[in-house]
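Lab meeting, item 3. Inverse folding demo.
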């Protein structure tokens, strides 16, 4: 077997092996990228859900705290009105006319304070629930973006593998042509040296 034939055969084996290893490497990289994208999407979802849950809990806490503050405020208001009535009664004042107006005005102002407590808590809890919804929406958008990027990367990896396969095929075809040419090349027979026993040492 001639050197050209051996070289062509080695070239074919090298092209096949190199192409196979390259394709396997590209597939492994693509799979790893897909796994990483899935991990990022799952992490984004879990983080958003946790943040949203914390925001909802905080909103309920704000409302519960406001309800308790309102309850205490009402009790304090009742005691304040009762004291004012007792003071008026000791002074011999009847709850009519100006005295009744004063009591009514104070009662309305105290109730307004209670309403302010609830209004502030409602605004805060609504903001927190809005943040919870926004967190989930942002996570959904991020996961869609990650999924789109992963899909595009997978498609690009597929085309890259096709390109590698075609490149390897071209190398194998070229090496195959060299092998065919080497096999079809006629071998030059070796010339026999003339028999000259009397001049073996050049004498």
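The presenter then showed the designed sequence:
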């Amino acid at each position: 077997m001639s050197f050209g034939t051996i070289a062509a055969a080695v070239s074919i084996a090298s092209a096949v092996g190199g192409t196979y290893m390259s394709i396997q490497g590209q597939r492994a990289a693509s799979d790893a990228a897909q796994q990483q994208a899935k991990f990022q999407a799952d992490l984004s979802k879990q983080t958003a859900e946790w943040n949203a849950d914390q925001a909802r809990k905080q909103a309920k806490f704000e409302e519960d705290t406001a309800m308790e503050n309102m309850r205490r405020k009402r009790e304090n208001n009742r005691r304040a009105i009762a004291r004012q009535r007792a003071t008026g009664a000791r002074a011999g004042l009847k709850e009519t006319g100006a005295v009744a107006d004063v009591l009514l005005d104070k009662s309305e102002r105290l109730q307004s304070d209670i309403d302010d407590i609830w209004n502030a808590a409602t605004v805060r809890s609504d903001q927190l629930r809005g943040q919870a919804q926004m967190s989930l929406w942002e996570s959904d958008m991020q996961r869609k973006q990650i999924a789109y990027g992963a899909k595009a990367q997978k498609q690009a990896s597929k085309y890259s593998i096709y390109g590698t396969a075609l490149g390897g095929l071209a190398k194998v075809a070229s090496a195959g042509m060299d092998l065919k040419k080497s096999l079809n090349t006629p071998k030059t027979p070796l010339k026999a040296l003339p028999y000259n026993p009397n001049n073996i040492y050049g004498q």
